[in-house]
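Recall the central idea of this unit: under ordinary conditions, the amino acid sequence of a chain determines the structure it adopts. In this exercise we apply that idea directly, starting from the sequence alone.
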Amino acid sequence: MADAWVVAAAGGSTLRVHVRPGAARPGLTGLHGGALAVRVGARPIAGAANREVLALLAAALGIGPTALEVTSGAQSRNKRIRVRGLTPATVQAKLAQVLRV
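Accordingly, the structure predicted from this sequence is:
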């Protein structure tokens, strides 16, 4: 996987994510335009899709959802998510296991 979608940030990493709401089968699907592609079943109403994105990422990374924060793009399909406590290499390694890359 290319490394432009996850970069170092103070105290952890920043992850670029492209969200596809309203999916029949939620999950992490690979890369889309230099970002991690995530499908969620929730519609983007009252933050439901963002909460599902954070829950999916937390499960994939083996961390609690409170270690994740949407730092930009809360109302957009393209988001930046801060991952506290994990280096970019660790994030890539954990997500590669889920994505089978």
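Residues 6-99 form a domain with the Conserved Hypothetical Protein Mth637; Chain: A; fold (CATH 3.30.1200.10).
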